[in-house]
Amino acid sequence: MNIKTSIVSILHPSDPDRAKPQVPMKLPHGKWIEQDYPRRIPPLQRRELRLWQRGFLTLIRVLAGETYDYTCFLVTARLGKVMPLHTLFFTQLLQHGRIPGADSERVVIRVAWRAGCQYEYAHHTRMAMALGVAKSEIETLTNEVDETWSPRVRALMLAVDELISTRNLSPVTYENLRHELDQDQILEFATLVGHYVMATMMLSVAGCPIEPAFEFEPTAAVAG
Q1: Distance CA 156, CA 181 (A)
Q2: CATH no., domain 22-36+82-214
């Protein structure tokens, strides 16, 4: 590949249908929002993007080590100038926050399951595995409770559930979480959960399609 071809391949996203499949994952039991209805708010096409948006998406592809644009970013591109600010915000929170990355991914997986958002679950299960979380553990994170959870994972999962259901943490839940996280991390935890509640809501309203490489095993989708 010559330099000119290499530059073109970076600037122009490849066909997502030709991407190498990710690790096969099953969609666990849950109250998932179905993906088979017509796309309410479709991802923007390349011709609809402004020049600066194309440049920003190129940066995302390069940093993510991908050759194609994720559909979630083509949906959030509809937010206009909010899109890069939003992307920088959640990237900083998820990848450079005070909570270890693997724990953040566990939290997002739990939020995605509670919200029924297949898109976020599809992506963050793979991101968790890339950070060393075993596939077998990931499969337990969508159980109501699980005896294999460590005290730390149990505190995180139950705090996610309570924060989503009550918008707060009870004294007992807070103290259990306080054994695992410091005060700054707990504020970050609440922000992380809140952001992904928002993100799952936005992607579900749009009907954001999952990229072919991230699709679930076809016989495993079970509605709750």
Answers
A1: 9
A2: 1.20.1290.10
Contact 73, 57 (CB under 8 A): yes
Break the chain into its structural domains and give their ranges.
Answer: 22-36+82-214
Phi, psi (rounded to 5 degrees) for 223: -85, 145
Q: What's the pLDDT at 185?
A: 98
Mean pLDDT of 35-47: 83
With 80 as the cut, is the pLDDT of residue 114 above it?
Answer: yes
Q: What is the pLDDT of residues 87-104, one digit of tens each?
A: 999 999 999 999 999 999
Instruction: Give burial (CB, 10 Å; 0-12/13-18/19+) of 141.
Output: buried
**Predicted structure pTM score:** 0.92
How sure is the predictor about 221, in pLDDT bands with cuts at 50, 70 and 90?
very low
Contacts of 161 (CB under 8 A, 6+ apart): 110, 114
> In this structure, are residues 92 and 63 in contact, taking their beta carbons and an 8 Å threshold?
no
Amino acid letter, 168: N
The secondary structure of 17-62 as a DSSP string is: GGSPP-------SB-PPPS-SPPSSPPPPGGGS-HHHHHHHHHHHH
